[in-house]
Model the fold of this input.
Amino acid sequence: MNKTFQTLGEFIIENQSEFAYSSGELSRLINSIRLAAKVVNHEVNKAGLVDITGAAGDTNIQGEDQQKLDVYANERFIQTLTNREIVCGIASEENDDFITIEGHNEDHQNKYVVLIDPLDGSSNIDVNVSVGTIFSIYRRVTKSGTPVTIDDFLQKGNQQVAAGYIVYGTSTMIVYTTGHGVNGFTLNPAIGTYYLSHPNMKFPEDGHIYSINEGNYIQFPQGVKDYIKYCQEETEDGERPYTSRYIGSLVSDIHRNMIKGGIYIYPETSKAPNGKLRLLYECNPMAFLAEQAGGKASNGYQRIMDIQPTELHQRVPFFCGSKNMVTKAEEFMAKSSKP
Ligand code: P6P
Done:
């Protein structure tokens, strides 16, 4: 039963039994993400007041300018996860390689690895548009007591034990799943407590919003062009059932579409044959959330969470949202790829 004004801490304790295999570590891991999110939120919310929005001068493995807040958020999440002695490894969009966390007495006994995009959409920071953190949690697959290897991170999305995002928007929210549905918690900044504000979130089966960067239209595959045309057609009585909404911040676009119904598409383009979004710390966690909320996520052909990763920062085309809308887009993709 969902209780109004239940805090995130109370919710985690009450649902502790849902965490298979966990003797409390997963709860402590979610709690550490909650703490880091509060610290990052504090900086994001005053970004305009301090010289922290400017580019940090470095570029990350993606070749993207690292905004200072990117670097700050990355450091906060890595530090919090390391201090809490729960994870044995961390992979981040901002780090070329994964980080091994030794633990007490260098025993590598911790069970979980975390993959994170510490501040997605950070190019929006200096124009005061919402940004977000995305995280994905797995049990390690290599032998306990030994340092993690790349195999612990290159797991299919269907092996995730938890995933979620923090959206630093008009309010700050944590939305996450441990495989038992999706729940959203809103931060009361006055007291630094997250409250259950969106219990049992569900992706509407259908929607009227399509989110895609149509500036890349000429580079899209024919199936995507056909789907966009379908969304723009008027009905016989002159109605336009669809509308375009694109913030350019994955967390914000997905969050809005999960509440209102809609589809987000970042397809392959002629310049980016695998699309732009990263499989491990953007698409897989969002796909887990979408499916747990009754939605759907694919690369236009295959379920995202069934894709076997081969590289830490690999990109995939991403279709995510209301089940019927993703299915319709996939029909256009299939039709256009027929010889
Ligand atoms: P474009 C932000 O850089 C991001 O990774 C997502 O948050 C966002 O949806 C997408 O890229 C925007 O990319 O090419 O449309 O600017």
Q: What stands out?
A: Residues 112 and 139 are 4 Å apart (CA to CA).
